[in-house]
């Protein structure tokens, strides 16, 4: 449904430091975009269908800037290795299975359904090197109504034979064919996905750069995650002043090329400066960075410098698709970084992590992640009634509590682009929105 | 029911480094204690009622060595202060409310029910300074069938007037009266609970020591949590060589006095040595120590030194009653401590945190936290079917995944001392155990 209104306790980030709260307010959706938040519904919108979520909390949809769909199968297992060993021991062997479409069908079915029933509305997702499996993943995600970017992964060196493309040329050719087949999707867009510098030859990066320019594609990859990895990149790319330059020298690091770099745990001044100047997005993945003993990114500094930062679940470095968990761990890890390592960068605030999870990451998708006028209408309705309490709480206190304690039972409904993509099945509520819904968001129950 | 058998995939810690897994095995309960784990049920037990939990995972009940019941109301809120400011700004104001029994009734009702439906079977719990509210808490917990220790808190200095007992004498007198009233409980035992050295005069500690000897009571308190707190204790207790000595000089630090000290984030060699020699239990509370920017305790070192260590949720420094979450965060925080701060103490393993959550903390209660012969029969049946996966997983992999991902939907049943205290209501299964159940664990649905 293109035009409607929802009512409840409305929270969104005005800036990284300011949370806007409107109790018992209205958010108006017109043509899939927000037409504003109101304490009292203006006369002109009174004829629109309005669903009253009463005392529930309504927030913008959450954004996951970095997640590996094929790794969802082994989340939370074998968490005893660092990055490179973990890739070689666990990850690559699992990703190789996606050559088998029967396996991919099962695995990606689970991933797509769990992402649909999470509070995430937008995501940037890694597939594997396999074109057919990646198309299958995109097919499944397209039907969820979520708006996501998915990448067929490129890797043509330093990878086990069973997960290594035979040449830069073949990798690029497969990628272009894949791009052509992506045109059939409504909600899913392709994103170029060189795995990371160690697994991509210079020739491959050059060819991907050509594709980027030809098709005006966004790019996602990994950057400065782990100390061992960074040393390896230095060896592999003599003459570069920082890891970021290994992408930048092929035009795959911002500027005209919308770019997400996951992690940036150990980025130095030069790298930060490039990212700031070239509008590269940081996907901060605190749980993964703890699980793989990578460290903690100085995210507060990135935010204060004006860099673009969102959050990522980084399945299966991270264990959970929940961006609430990513918010909580971003605060917690920033406190430990401050206490144990570097007193020059203070702990993150609740406002800052909520901003990163919504408007900060959302910016990668355009006007996304806020209820300000003109933003795409992505909304999540939260039910915190299972978190009982004897005292009166403010909406802001309830939201902070949800950041730490939300679980699979906390979401009542989810909208993307104005369309409902999820609604709790037990509550018995039938809304006017649901019945009239049509188009890409419909029929996803 | 005193004698029965449960069947499923049985996991318990043999040692801190060895997880015992028996697929499709049997645990036998006789007179409330384990009579062993078997791959095939011995003939002598074949006549006992047996409940088959099929492919579910059965573990010993989890142990929470440190939790503040009155703080459950504000878990996950206001997480932007360090310990002393947090106590003064948030905690003390909330605890003062428990003078009002109507408030206590509501708040403790929620706490007791949420603890019952968690995977925790044993806990050491702080109340407030208020005798009546603490008795009310104990009453509610007694009815859950869980086996817990609860303390009326003592504090007679450096506390706001509204939460400060008027003298050491009055505090001790109230405590002795409270102890007498505790005799009516079946499952709940009293534990002496001087809040921490800053809020207890020497006179008070001396009087509590007398009570300890007279009634042979266990003791719980806080130790070396936060740098500011440690400096303060140094000022308050001139002549002591470490924080631990401020309790030890009154005989409240192990030896004949079973003692739990929460946190021990910054314990030095001298303190560690005393704790080891005097069998003081460490309650490691990783989430709280992150939330309050206290740091990360070197728990791996404590374990390797042979010290006694369990886990604590430390509500509301911690946000969640889940000891699964405490396990996951113990691993994660140990990795960050190793990466950011001190390479001499390595990351914790899955085996170590599972040990701490069961047998390590359980030892405070006697033979608790294992399925070895003679241990009290505390068991939790876990259903991981909502964590779907396309590939075959080992039981150990499934257990590790639950440590990271268990939520409110993961528990099917819980036993304490052989009695069922929780059983999932939706599954429609009626077990032979339930119908015959009698005694303190019964009627808690």
Supply database-style keywords.
globular, 4-stranded parallel sheet, 445 residues, 23% strand, 14 helices, 7-stranded mixed sheet, disordered C terminus, alpha/beta, homodimer
Tell me about this structure:
- The structure is a homodimer of 445-residue chains.
- Chain A is of the alpha/beta class.
- The first copy, chain A, has 14 helices and 17 strands.
- In chain A, the strands form 4 sheets. In chain A, strands 3-2-1-4-15-16-17 form a 7-stranded mixed β-sheet.
- In chain A, α4 packs parallel to α5, α11 (323-340) packs across α12 (350-362) and α11 crosses α13.
- Chain A is globular.
- Mean pLDDT of chain A is 94; it is low at 427-445.
- The interface between A and B is large, with 53 and 53 residues.
SSE layout:
Two copies of one chain form a homodimer.
Chain A: E1 4-15, E2 18-30, E3 33-38, E4 50-60, E5 62-68, H1 83-96, H2 101-116, E6 120-126, H3 131-144, E7 147-151, E8 153-154, H4 168-181, E9 188-190, E10 193-194, H5 202-215, E11 219-223, H6 227-236, H7 243-248, E12 259-263, H8 269-277, E13 281-284, H9 286-291, H10 299-304, E14 308-311, H11 323-340, H12 350-362, E15 379-382, H13 395-405, E16 411-416, E17 419-423, H14 432-436
Parallel strand pairs in A: 1-4, 5-6, 6-7, 7-9, 8-10, 11-12, 12-13, 13-14
Antiparallel strand pairs in A: 1-2, 2-3, 4-15, 15-16, 16-17
């Amino acid at each position: 449904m293109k035009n409607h209104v929802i009512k409840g306790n409305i929270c969104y980030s005005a800036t990284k430091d300011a949370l806007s709260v409107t109790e018992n307010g209205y958010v108006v959706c017109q043509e899939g975009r927000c037409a504003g938040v109101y304490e009292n519904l203006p006369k002109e919108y009174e004829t629109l269908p309005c669903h009253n979520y009463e005392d529930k909390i309504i927030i913008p949809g959450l954004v996951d800037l970095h997640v590996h769909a094929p790794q969802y199968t082994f989340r939370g297992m074998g968490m005893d290795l660092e990055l490179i060993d973990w890739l070689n021991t666990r990850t690559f062997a699992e990703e190789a299975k996606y050559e088998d479409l029967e396996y991919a069908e099962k695995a990606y079915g689970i991933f797509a359904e769990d992402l649909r029933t999470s509070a995430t509305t937008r995501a940037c997702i890694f597939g594997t090197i396999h074109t057919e499996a990646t198309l299958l993943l995109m097919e499944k995600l397209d039907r969820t109504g979520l708006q996501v970017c998915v990448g067929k992964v490129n890797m043509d060196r330093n990878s086990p034979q069973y997960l290594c493309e035979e040449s830069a040329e073949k990798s690029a050719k497969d990628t272009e064919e894949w791009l052509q087949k992506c045109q059939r999707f409504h909600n899913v867009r392709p994103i170029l996905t060189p795995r990371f510098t160690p697994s991509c030859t210079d020739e491959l990066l050059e060819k991907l750069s050509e594709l980027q320019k030809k098709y005006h594609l966004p790019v996602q990859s990994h950057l400065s995650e782990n100390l061992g990895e960074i040393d390896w990149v230095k060896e592999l790319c003599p003459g570069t002043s920082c890891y970021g330059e290994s992408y930048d020298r092929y035009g795959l690091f911002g500027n005209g090329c919308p770019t997400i770099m996951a992690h940036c745990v150990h980025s130095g001044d030069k790298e930060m400066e490039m990212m700031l100047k070239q509008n590269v997005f940081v996907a901060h993945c605190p749980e993964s960075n703890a699980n793989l003993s990578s460290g903690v990114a100085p995210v507060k500094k990135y935010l204060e410098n004006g860099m673009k930062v969102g959050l990522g679940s980084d399945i299966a470095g991270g264990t959970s698709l929940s961006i609430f968990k990513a918010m909580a761990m971003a605060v917690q890890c920033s406190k430990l970084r401050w206490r144990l390592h570097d007193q020059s960068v203070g702990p993150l605030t609740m406002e800052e992590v909520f901003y990163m999870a919504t408007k900060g990451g959302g910016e990668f998708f355009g006007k996304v992640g806020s209820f300000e006028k003109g933003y795409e209408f992505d909304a999540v309705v939260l039910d915190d009634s299972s978190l009982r309490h004897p005292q009166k709480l403010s909406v802001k206190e309830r939201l902070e509590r949800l950041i730490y304690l939300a679980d699979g039972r906390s979401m009542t409904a989810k909208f993307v682009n104005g369309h409902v993509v999820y609604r709790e099945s037990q509550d018995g509520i039938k809304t006017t929105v649901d019945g009239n819904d049509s188009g890409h968001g419909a029929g996803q129950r």
